[in-house]
Amino acid sequence: MIGIYHNSTMREAEFGGTKTMNIVFMGTPDFSVNALKSLIEAGHNILAVVTQPDKKKGRGEKVMFTPVKEEALKHNLPVYQPEKVRDPEFIKILGEMPIDVCVVIAFGQILPKEILEMGTYGCINVHASLLPKYRGAAPIQWAVIDGEEYSGVTTMQMNEGLDTGDILEVTKVKLAEDETGGSLFDKLADEGAKLIVKTLEDLEAGTITPVKQDDSKSNYAKMLKKDLGNLDFSKPAVQIERLIRGLNPWPSAYTHIGGKTLKIWQAQVLEETFDGENGEVIDIDKKGFTVKTGEGALRILEVQLEGKKRMKSEQFLLGYKLEKGAVLQ
Q1: Are the C-beta atoms of residues 172 and 130 closer than 8 Å to each other?
Q2: How far apart are CA 249 and CA 256, in angstroms?
Q3: CA gap 62, 321 in Å, rounded
Q4: SS3 of 13, please?
Q5: pLDDT digit string, tens, across residues 93-123
Q6: What whole-number distance in Å separates Cα of residue 17 and Cα of residue 19?
Q7: Exposed, middle or buried: residue 34 (CB in 10 Å: 0-12, 13-18, 19+)?
Q8: For residues 280 and 290, what is the distance between their CA atoms, to the nearest angstrom?
Q9: Are 312 and 302 a contacting pair, CB within 8 Å?
Q10: Pairing label, strands 150-157, 166-174
Q11: Distance of CA 237 to CAs 44, 148, 205, 269, 277, Å?
């Protein structure tokens, strides 16, 4: 376990008419950062920030801080990076803090019962879906891939299950027609940051009635793997196009041409019936090219050939000799 300690002034006074809470914040990636900022701006007292251990990246194995750690250090907050939050020593440290609530958002470890029960309000999780739908690791991307009309953010009273605790409050967000995993990520990060502040205010005011989740309506959002992006052109164009958007920017959708990987960043669905085999390039013009699929076709608008920069198909075709009849696999 690593502890980085900085001076932190305890605040007991009222702030903007709302009682200041003593918070332990647990989070790791970019998605968590806005929530931490919002809690600080709302005047809450962050007793500690708990995040995943630093990792070495790149050829030089440079040590990289998590986004949450970087933000915490900007505000001179104490940071803890336990290898395992179940470590008795770490639990003892938290147990000695005057915690009102633990706020957990994309932390990356399962919390033990001892931590879940700490503080006046226990542990409140900010989850990027309309629970009970899309429990699990990748709710944002799967909402796009599955063609959901709405997604959103849920604050939840955590229990020992995986995203199974009682629902506290919900914010609903309509997906745009061109929504990507990345754009929805940004929207929900903003909404989550606002919702957690509101939820804490409403908990203090006693105006929240927790709602049990209906397990029969749950849908597990499994973790994304790179091979999920390997496009299968036997599927309908509508499904493939949603997959392209859902996996943008990571892990990205791709196919192969001329022995090289070709990432597909943007495509348009054509619903007409076309002749040819699935994956075949059936039309090319100055602006782009069209690929047949199991149902309809895809007009490919933005690509990235292995070893090259991301570019519009118009630019790609200027430097790559693509011919009608070529098959993407």
Answers
A1: yes
A2: 18
A3: 40
A4: coil
A5: 999 999 999 999 999 999 999 999 999 999 9
A6: 7
A7: buried
A8: 8
A9: yes
A10: antiparallel
A11: 48, 16, 50, 6, 13
What DSSP designation does 222 have? P
Backbone angles phi and psi of 190, in degrees to 5 = -65, -45
Rounded to 5°, angle at Cα 24 from 41 and 182? 65
pTM, entire model: 0.92
Amino acid at the residue 78: P
CA dihedral 117, 120, 122, 123 (to 10 degrees): -140
AA identity, residue 145: I
Q: How far apart are CA 187 and CA 140, in angstroms?
A: 10
> For residue 14, how many other CB atoms are within 10 A of its CB?
10
Please tell me the distance from the alpha carbon of residue 70 to that of residue 316, in angstroms, as a whole number. 38
Instruction: Return d(Cα 247, Cα 265) in angstroms, integer.
Output: 9
* pLDDT tens digits, 75-89: 999 999 999 999 999
Instruction: Residue 31: name the closest of 88, 82, 107 by CA.
Output: 107
Token digits of residue 100: 């009102």
Task: Tell me which DSSP letter residue 16 carries.
Answer: T
The residues facing 64 across adjacent strands are: 55
N-terminal to C-terminal alpha carbon distance within the chain = 47
Helix (H) or strand (E) run with residue 242 in it: helix 237-246
Q: How many CA atoms lie within 13 A of 130 on its CB side?
A: 12
Instruction: Quote the tokens at residue 9.
Output: 């002034």
